[in-house]
Design a protein that fits this description.
Number of helices: 0
Strand order of the largest sheet: 4-3-2-1-5
Shape: elongated
Oligomer: single chain
Helix content: under 10%
Amino acid sequence: MQILFEPEYAIGDIVSLKINPELKMVVDGYSIFKVNSAGEVVSWSYSTYDVDGKGFSFRDTDLELYVEFNN
């Protein structure tokens, strides 16, 4: 069976929490929890780390891509 998985964020992307955009983290992996009968990943989380090296795990709905604006 081939598993279809197209995450919103790639490994190396800088993301922040939607509820706390001050906390910036780097995506360093994925954990797949559930695949449906068609081979589509339907439940997963992102593993991330912050500037201090602390690791975290979040659902994609908790995160947003960090974009820095320069004037």
